[in-house]
Fold this sequence. Notes:
This protein has 462 residues and is of the alpha+beta class. The chain has helices at residues 38-51, 124-130, 182-189, 204-207, 226-249, 304-317, 321-334, 415-450, and strands at 3-5, 14-18, 24-33, 56-57, 64-68, 79-85, 93-94, 99-105, 110-115, 131-136, 140-146, 151-156, 166-172, 200-201, 216-219, 265-268, 286-295, 358-360, 364-366, 368-371, 375-383, 387-398, 401-412.
Amino acid sequence: MERSRTPNESSFPHVSINASDGSRAAEVTLLTQLDVGAGDAVATAAGARQAQHADFNDALDEPSARLSAPDLATGDNAALYTFSVGRHGHPFHRHAAPRVFTAISGSGGARLRFIAAGSACDTPEDIRQALRHVEIPADCLFTVRMAANTWHQFEPLRGNGRHPALFAVSCHPDETAGALAPAQQAQVMRGEADLASLTELMPAALQQHTQQTQVWTSVLSFDPLPRQAWACAHLRRHAGQVRQLLVQLHPRNGTRSHRLPDLQTHSSHQLPPDSLLAKQLPRHHHQDHVEIQIAQHWLGGSNPEQLLAALLSAFIQQPAGSVSGLMRLRNLLARPLRLRTSSLGCPVSSLLSDAATQRFAQRFPVLAMSSSTNAAQVLLGADDRHLQFRSSVGVQREGERITFSLSTRVYCRNPFGHLYMAAVDPMHRHFIAPKMLKTAVNCLLEEAATVVPAGGAAIVTM
């Protein structure tokens, strides 16, 4: 690998990447170094806020939100977005128009991969010649500008699955620019475009050629000495994990306008009569149901469908730290057995799947869903070698009370499944499911508390 390290500049370390025709394809500039571990904390907290935005879109492993749409009627074609790239990066893609964004790298640093526009990129040799890497240190504020049609991919620099790659604010100078497909152009003109609809994924045949071990790499850094930079990066990775945990445990620390209610969970073996789960897995070996009831006034005027969408977002964006720790241990033990793994607890782990054919609120993969004026519910689930599980997540409004519920059924497919559930059942019933639901509902209350007007009712923002 050919590596070049930026000199110890008195201003902003930067690198430019040129296309084969000499034009600038991408330029990356470091702006400043943040506090130790700040990158993970900012990405976690800002990502959670992004998920609550009215124009949030969780697609292509690049969750995003449109903060400001273009005003085409007045000739203002610019748009403003946020986007985040998580622990596993996102796929190679490109855009028809130029992009400019400012980002904060996670506490493991970030690797930016570019294939310059103007390169043929039809063969492995073309890819090898055109592929460029830029390494961003941990906890840094930096900017990127890219020309139209520049293939790019972002990922954590140290891919241990513990740090997000980055969180960014992106400016589209002209949303109508570039060789947009007719459907894209029409969507832009209607004011309905988002990051996903303006993205072209790299074809699989081309993607396989990007897995090169020898890549020209530019290492941007504020530290002049490699050994000093290594020691700093090591410290930041560990501090970032601690700060991520603190954000998850106290996601709105210091922003409460009043004391939140103490949440009490109620568990049972019986399902509600209207549960979507009632017709699933008639033969089952495990069943549990947990619910939380709170007064309506804590959540303002949000309807059950909005509350359910917020609840599902909380399951994904702010999972219970203790449950996540148990899942990491479970995944470590499950991989040698070729069992399904997930970073989320099994009642909601299928929210990370792309296999489901239905989407609740246009972004959450579900097996079934139902909604009415006073209730909303989704059915989740997946099959594994040793068991099948189905779960329902619901929100119901009755008078002045809101009930949040999480129910699960499991069918064991073989003796190992029975053995597995015998070990897991008590923990799942008495800790995992109640903890997951309680943490998610508390996130909704925290979010509502941050936007309470003086003397007014709480509001859940979506």
